[in-house]
Amino acid sequence: MRINSLLIFCFLLCGSVIAQEKLSAKEVKRLEENIQQKNADINSLQGEFIQTKKLDFLQEPAKSSGKFIYKAPKQLKWIYLSPESFSLLFTNQKLFIEEEGNTKEIAISSNKLLRRLSQLIAKSINGEMLSDNSFTVNYRKEKQFITAHLIPKEATIKDFIEQLVLYINPETLLVEKIKIMENAKDFTLISLEKIRVNEIIHNAVFKP
């Protein structure tokens, strides 16, 4: 079961500390209020992604790409197109892994870890992760982004992630990059591109 891809999929980035400026309490309050208001108006998101995984034992980062489709409140499809073709679909408390014409169904309602991951997946994409009490959040201004550095509190999450960083476009308030820091040396970076908001997505897209 492509658990590594699932974990990568779950977290939609941590850059250099240099040239970063912490947001004031007033700025944080205003930002969170604006993001909450923005999220309330989002019914769907879709676009393309480029994923880069850096591991200490690899000479070159592993790269893959594809597209994602999200429909509020909990339907999400992550489609890998290169270098391999397969997809991960979360819908109705179930995970479907589709590959080479075969579909594997996994019930997540009885699996605490998968259930938690499924919640975090959608929250990373639509920005609701910022209001998740399972994380301590620190905001910084970094170049053209506002970065939200999320430190997990839950032991189950700490087991596979040291830090999650969301790169937020200050103009659109959309998450455009996600970085999963597994440790000081290993990370996965996901760049979301060509993001389209509130286009009609038919429910048939989320049928396995």
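(the above was protein one; protein two follows)
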Amino acid sequence: MPKHNNLIPNQHFHKAWQNHVKTWFNQPAKKKSRRVARAAKAAAIFPRPVQGPLRPVVHCPTIKYNTKLRLGRGFTLEELRGAGITKRFAQTIGISVDHRRKNKSEGPLADNINRLKQYKAQLVLWPKRKESKKHPRKADEAAPEDREKATQLTGAVLPVKQKEVRVKAQVVEPMGKGSAFVTLRRARADAKYIGIRKKKALAREEKAKLKKKD
């Protein structure tokens, strides 16, 4: 029984319980349908990469996570200019563009420009139109034999590699005898009274000069 002057519990847990039970018996069939949908999507976008366009490598925000790298939304216009790619052309060859993002440091800017150049060097570019005498193949477009050898990329496009920072162990020399507390108190006092001590030292020097003149 509940304590104090409270309502006596009378929960009706057996009322149509089967209507509130959630089951997951369709999980194996859903797993198969998702796999079939992924295969159909990959076939529809062939020869483009399955996992979407190329994205820039950016640093996570805040001091806690800024050493970690992740994929950003899109390349800046400055990064595209550095790699010699126009905004409109980038969107046609599988490069994501974010005109709102700004570059604030030289390091990530250079890294993303190199990333674009690496992607451009590995890119197999399909012609926009069927090759003919009227519409010959352009210099940057792949030859028919290269297009036949090309395969669809299923993994991430140029995946992110975290920078490993290894710190070598150093042998710390013993500080010797003495109290660390006293050393810190002296250093704090020296920093606090440096101006007063300089003023007193100048006053003593002036007194000594006056005595010599006399």
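Reviewer note on protein two: The helical segments are 27-44, 62-65, 77-83, 87-92, 106-122, 144-149, 180-192, 194-213.
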